[in-house]
Amino acid sequence: MSKTTNPTAGAEPSMELIWVDPAEIIIDENVRTVVDIDPAFFESIRDYGVKSPPSVWRDDEGRIHCEFGQRRVLASTMAKHPVIPALLMSRERATEEAEVERSRIVSQLTENDQRQGLTDGERVQAWKQLAFFGMSTDEIAKTTKTKREKVRAGMKVAKESPATVDLMKERQLTIDEALVMQEFEDASTEQLELLEQTLREAPRDVPKVAKQVRDELAKAEAIAAAQLEAERMGVPWRDPDKIKIWDGTHRSITDVRIGKSRKAPTIEQALDQGGVVASVHESKKWNGAGYDHEYSTRFYVEHPQKHGYAGYAAAPEKSPEEVEKDRAERKLKREQKAAWIEATELRHAWIRDTLLAQKPPLGAELWIVRTLVGDDATYSYTSAGSQHKPAKLLLSWVAPDTEIPADAYAAESRAVEKLITAAVKPADAVRYGLGYALASAEFTLADPKHPAFATQISAHRYLRQLAEWGHTLHPAEQRLLDIADEHTRKRANREDA
Q1: 415 & 343 share domain
Q2: What is the pLDDT of residues 336-369, one digit of tens each?
Q3: Half-sphere exposure of 253 (CA within 13 A, CB side)
Q4: Among 20, 139, 335, 433, which is disulfide-ready with 135 (CB 3.0 to 4.6 Å)?
């Protein structure tokens, strides 16, 4: 064991060169959470050993602690070096050395920031070095006169995503931008550039773009997993974009049959029959704000007829009674649809030639208001999204500081301007307003392509209001009112029970 001593005669040695197992050296846990060993540094330590000994000290129980050179110790432990050189000194001397290094970093950080303005990436790198010397996040914030929240955010990036720190320096990202980017370390260059551009040019779109990239990464991961599974099973792989269900080139194995079997074949049976390929299937589920994407491995038969597969399983034959019942139901629907078309034509003629051609009926103003605010009783499909808040604000129904979309006022102003321009007289204004209110109720009620055409019993209040104003109900309209009354009675009986 060699020693290095002070040249002063008679003085106690201030440091001593020792050889020690790096795995036995104690490193502050705070340092362990922020240190990262890059491959080049590790390879250098692994191949050539430690050239600059770390500074260590021994506690009262004989345990050795590292004060300076923690990365060298950790890299040596990873490289499984049996021993490394270290400078053993008193705890006070080791602390002094660390304090000198801390002061140097803080001074350099402050001086550079004042002179040229450091990037957040450079700041985070300096904060990491200070953490190596045992400084806590709060101490770093106080010493460097930086907001505590900013230092904590930067150290969070440093701890959880060292590669993002390099990205911060390379692309001059801010800490806030890095917090978004750290989730996407595995993203492609194009995806990272898209995220950066969005962060800087359209911050409001960041959640949408981040979800887009997240979905793309999830799809790529699912494809990679499915390819491995297909390779393991010896099944040919097909890109999801090349799967052609629409023209019959591919069929899911759940949709084909073998021979006279009415059941889908198992994957083993399909492999024996031939033509099986693997791909990834994407399913989407609406979550109220967008679609959630899920991916799963799916097996298909390529050119099923060529490999002797049958089509879908035959539906069980219906009895004569069931066939007759279906025929009667189809006939009834056709009759109801024809009757409703006739009723709609008569109703529109009455509204146009009678109701709106005379003085507005009693309650017309109230009906217009109820339509604008989206009252279900009017059966209105008016979109109240843009005008709802402005109307409430103008009518003093909400506080003046209520947040309202910027474009809502413009849309409302244009609508009001058209109404005022058309309304030569006050009575005409009510008439035009009533016409728009009734049209919003007829939006789906008179649409033959609507799935519930001729069966929309939810319109019963609207039809009753027209009847009160003088409309003679068509039998098809009366039928809906009767069904609605029956539903009301049944609901009342259930509540009483």
Answers
A1: yes
A2: 999 999 999 999 889 988 998 888 898 888 888 8
A3: 21
A4: 139
